[in-house]
Amino acid sequence: MDGAGGETARGSLPPRTAPVRFAAFALDLDGRSLMREDGGDVPLTHSEFALLSAFVRHPGRVLSRDYLLDALAGKRADPFDRSIDVLVGRLRRKIEPDAKRPTLIVTVPGEGYKFAAPIRAEALNPAPESAPPKTAGSLAGEREPPRLSIVVLPFANLSGDPKQDYFVDGVTESLTTDLSRINGAFVIGRSTAFTYKDKPVDARAIRRALNVRYLLEGSMQREGGRIRVNAQLIDSESGAHLWAERFDKPLVDLFDVQDEIVAHLARQLDAALISAEARHAARSPEPDSVDLYFQGMAWLNKGIALEHLARAGEYFDRALALAPNDVGALTGAAWVKMMLASAYATEDRADRLAAASAGLAKALYLAPHHALAHLTLGRVEICANRGAQAIIECERALALDRNLAAAHATIGMAKLFIGRAEETEAHVLEALRISPRDTLAFNWLATAGLAKLYLGSDEEAAAWFRRALIVDRNLPNAHFYLAAALAHLGRFDEAKASSAAGLAINPAYTISGFRAGSFSDNPTFLAQRERVYDGLRKAGVPEA
Length: 544
Prior knowledge:
Mean pLDDT: 82
Number of helices: 22
CATH topology of the domain at 149-282: Rossmann fold
Radius of gyration: 25 Å
CATH architecture of the domain at 149-282: 3-Layer(aba) Sandwich
CATH class of the domain at 149-282: Alpha Beta
CATH superfamily of the domain at 149-282: ABC-type transport auxiliary lipoprotein component
Shape: globular
Largest sheet: 6 strands, mixed
Helix content: 40-55%
Strand content: 5-15%
Structural class: alpha+beta
């Protein structure tokens, strides 16, 4: 098995425009829906749809619990994990004539499950060349590729040394696996991708052959003690470059550098793919819940300015109106509510956090292995004075997605609130190592600065806050924290200017409001926080 993104997990049957038909049902892989042939709709959760999709891709094959959990969640199954059994039971109740005597999804004792229903052959054939395009934007006579569909083409080895091929191929293979962990992604397996090794890239030909929206190509060159990497994300329809990255790293430990390259590219690509999908969605005359989700995520990726959060929230709400069980939209809406409560100290903070918790409880019931939902819950736990639990949630998120840099930063934030501010900087540095230009980097930089401010290292704190504000000047708390640090350093004119900049963004900010919005009752944390109140006061921030 190639891993979570390999042929056996995802590449055997690319989604077709025509529904896959079995028994009395038609499964629309593009539209993510299940219908009875008499016209009735069968509601499926994200996890149920993913499980059924895995079965219809491999009719007649025995699929182990380990394999199914790997395919659905991108992780190996614990021998005692029975979540797949529960999910199979729920799915049987929806599609079997008699769930107690299943004939479609049958148990193979000691091995796993087999999808025993015959698949109608016509559903497996490619759409004919004369078929009309699904959307106006697709090439004439072609199927419109599914959302978030991508092939990672083998990176080129520019070192002139064939012995380096193993290293370059290792990066390609690992990147294929890591991208497949993106929720909803369809990633062509490495065995198919490697048939294009050392061949010229023809984006349209690859689109026709593999039915993917995006191509990732790149090159690596190892010279002396450094390694240079170039990568480009290509639109398969137009051949346009949607995103490009170029960087070089000192070569110390070969495998550490390989992991760092993969983590860096995977995180940047996640954001680039969301932006590309949001542009597709904006052109759709009748956007569905997934289109709206991508547009909400694109606004979130712009930063935490009030306008961005408000627009993101609108899209997530619209998505949930169409699909109340959309796990991505539930998680996105919870993130918006949490950020509004934590960054802007709103009067309805408690209500927002309660709503975020409720949305995440539903999301994790529907999809227990959703890494971003666990991360978001970690942020909510911090706001609820449960820093230790926040760390546990973030560690769960990292077990599911090792490239989730924000989880490292959130662990650092949680440690600040449980009186361990001296440990915060290391976690922030790890987040920045994985994703140095992350859309949340300004928030992480401010977190490191706040830890230094709590510890009395005001010069270091000011440096961190300035780095945060270079990335995003719309972070109100960073202005206020910088003002407090500058006031402690005796630079009062600069402190008052920074305070004024913060108040221009959030005019309702007061010291009493900041004090009331404390996320922790840890005595060490509270003692350290007193010096922040004093600094804000000296910088001219209103008391109430």
